Amino acid sequence: MSSESKFGEYGGQYVPEALMPAIEELTDAYERYVLDNEDGFMDEFRERLRDFGGRPTPLQRADRLSERYDREVYLKREDLLHGGAHKLNNALGQVLLAKYMGKERIVAETGAGQHGTATAMACAYLDVDCEIYMGRTDINRQRPNVFRMRIHDAAVNPVDIGSGTLKEAINETMRDWATNVEDTHYVIGSVVGPHPFPRMVRDFQSVISEEAREQIREKAGRLPDSVVACAGGGSNTMGAFHEFVGDDEVDLVAVEAGGSALTIDEEEGLAPHSASLSTGDDGVLHGARTKLLQNPDGQILESHSVSAGLDYSGVGPELAYLADEGRVTPVNVGDDAALEAFHRLSKTEGIIPALESSHALAYLEEHPDELGDLVVVNVSGRGDKDLDTVIEESEKRDLDAAPSMEVFEGEQ
Amino acid sequence: MSSEIEAAFADEPALVSYVAAGDPDAESTKEYVRALVRGGTDVVELGLPFSEPVAEGPTIQQAIRRALDAGMTPDRYFDLVAELREEVDVPLVCMTYYNLIYQYGSGEGGADDGREGPEPFVAAAAEAGISGLIVPDLPVDESDPLKEACETHGLDLIFIVAPTTTDERLGRMLSRASGFVYVQGRLGTTGARSDVSDDTHGSLDRLAETDLPKAVGFGISEGDHAREIVAGGADGIIVGSAFVDIVAEQEDTADRLEAKARELKAGALDGAPDLPEPESK
Predict the structure, then answer these.
(1) What CATH architecture is A14-52+87-201?
(2) What is the pTM of this model?
(3) Measured between alpha carbons, how far is A320 from B97 in angstroms, rounded to an integer?
(4) For residue A175, which residues of chain B lie inside 8 Å, CB to CB?
């Protein structure tokens, strides 16, 4: 079996020559182990995901949301995966693959820290050295995950350049990889980067839609009218969509971070949002041609989202392709709506969702009628890591939905 | 047919000097290029700054940041190149990342004129007086559209050979390279180092039979490095971070750039094993 490097015009392999032999080696390993299950790689991966990771995750009917929106709402509970996010599916797959390839060292970048945590966890589990790059801004807003990475014995390297978020962390990890490429594998955290990463990460994540498709048929007796997932780089998105792409009757809705506004400040070189799929232009970044937030010269803009995990100026090339083809509908919701959705799910369903996932839930609140009678929302991760941000941002906005964190009920 | 860049390597070991255009401003860049040429620079590699320079180490990353903050854009870059060409007679090579090339002319006002992909950039570069391109994030595998545009407009497309490059890849690169072969002296990113890597010698040995000039970059900062590399079979050296460090300090910048270039060029000449006797003119 072979693997194409492009999705239409998107994708490709735009990396420094020093990395190309490693990418060719990885492509070969991907085709043999992942696509052809050589040496039983995929069997071992599935078994470890089950025993270590806790798969399958439930597809839960959300009773009060179903009532609220007067339709059947199901939640795919990736927050219940070991580590608290879908990220383990990919991290475990890639660290295991690196071991099959004989690599001794893992490097990874992380934004919200979930991918870094999952990679550190997988490395501890499979006994491989691990080094994580993380932007300074993200380190400051995701402390719990920084501690978790270090507790798993990973080195966490702060990146001070630029806005200190995911884009800069990716640049720095690529530099490390280019220096140590002979014994090191770069575990990219999303469906981005040069081929074969977008396909490979999607394949590791597609267990989400594989399970969800079976579970919804069992529970509701049919396929859903729509599947809703948040999209930053797009790994939970592609994971939740992949097995439904061939089901034309299922709408696939990718919810991006609308941030504080869908504008662009060209003077400052920043976009106060991260909606590259719905508003970006075609360009080349981090190894792939895809949709990017950039100025007319091609300089990449700094992005923004209240959710560190969505704060990225690009998006996976396959999502860019599926959006162009009309198969995936890109939409977006703002920071405020995401924060409200965070509190709503916590209160009404007893689930604290990641701020990333809160974007998907906010879209459900704003546009329930566009999603049909049977809706699956991917809860990509749990929100423990976001508590500091949520408390601070909710207070800043005087959000009605948020409880006061300073006064206890009995003291009022 | 030998290109202007190849000709710059013809008589003696060449010094290829890099500065980031617009660091700290366009006027200073002109002054620095003049100083580098006075010091013996044979080819100037003029960086067009991109916001995500993944192949660069800290020194050049910071230079690129300064240049972007000072407002450098592709159009201002081409103006700068055109002005420089009136003053210096060494070939100018543009080093930049693919997104800037790809995006040029396809942004606002550009997409509707029917020109897409890298051609508008290459046309503008040729018109300004650029002789060749180095694009570190464009491996040979993705280079067809750019190579075609370069052939149309008479520019050399220079490929980087890494220590990890396989023989199969090397063959593909050499079949389409022109100008010179950029030999990456070591794995990693750009930046001054205190020694010459064994990787350099290995790569030069592999390229011994190649007709194109071979220039080594990544890590060279002193005359002694230049001597060793040329003695090892290189036709030239490429120096960036050592110059950019001087630019960053902003003290007697032009004089120090000239002196550094002179030291490196002298080292390169020293290392040349058997230069032909100078012809009487």
Answers:
(1) 3-Layer(aba) Sandwich (3.40)
(2) 0.95
(3) 21
(4) 54-55, 57, 188-189
